[in-house]
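FIELD: query
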Amino acid sequence: MITDELKTLIATHIKDNLFDSAKIGLGGNSTNPTATDLDVPLSVTPTITKTKSDLNVLEVKVSISGNSIQGKVIREVGLFNGSDMVYRANFDGVGPFSTTETLELFILLEVE
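FIELD: result
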């Protein structure tokens, strides 16, 4: 068993060091653990916001303007450390989007 203090330190380390960018994509099949990129990444740059919402929980918000994804249906999101994908989630498609909308995806990571 790890202590609450170690959970807090690990969560802080992940928030501060383990990912610096995000991608969204059109692919939606299951994640291969050896994958290095999204299945069908879009050439857009989402904004990410990282917060530690509890001692051992991180919240990552990935947001992108509808101008960048007009008419698209988004089915995957990934977090990256440089060019290395460290997290990917696929989900039921959301969209299509108009230019006046904003897509916000929330990822909760818990250290247990």
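FIELD: remark
The mean pLDDT is 93.
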